[in-house]
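sorry for the late reply, my laptop died twice this morning and i had to redo everyting from scratch. anyway the thing you sent over, i finally got around to it. pasting the sequence first so we're on the same page, its 219 residues, then the predicted structure underneath. double check i copied it right bc i was rushing
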Amino acid sequence: MTDLSALCGFAVVVGLLTLTPGLDTALILRTAALGHRRRAWGVVLGIQSGTLAWGLLTSLGITALLTASHLAYAIVRWAGAAYLVWMGARMIWSARRRPAAPEEADVDDETGRLRTGSAPDTLRGGWRQGAVTNLLNPKMGAFYVAVLPQFIPPGASQLAMGVLLASVHVVLAVLWSCALIAFARVLRNHLRRAAARRLLDRITGTVIGAFGIRLALGD
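ok and here's the structure:
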């Protein structure tokens, strides 16, 4: 397998994975749809920082040790599950506490951002949320351990090729995130009322919480 064919083959695999709706999609869409543009890009950068870290750790053989150790894998899995369930519950609880008046719109007409009742629109806050969500998902590590070595040609540098392949994943994911954020800007016009935002938080919180429960109950 040549380097070019390895890159193309890996791009197809992670491209399909990226397009599959999941936790990352829900988190980016929800954040961007609420008008938090900086925080949404922070989430994207955080998720992709985690992806690059998983690629680096896999290339160094560290991720294989994690997946081989039942205790270490279980600790990361339960920590990730607890974080996702907490995040989902927080969104649902926040939706319950928002003003119930359907006529009330607390969106700034000039900026399109929420005035109150939501997380600060900061790049750092979004990055932290995205990175923690990604790094506390041991299934990402298991995926890289199972898939990445298959696309590293014989004789190639494990570290250099592994980072290059992970970078391909990051580029594709960022491009897809651009499309998600653009789509979310359309949704934002329908989320100017509190009732619509409460519904969005309930749906997203339920999805994220379900991912956490699934992670906790997984093998």
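The chain has a mean pLDDT of 83.
thats about all i looked at so far, will dig more tmrw
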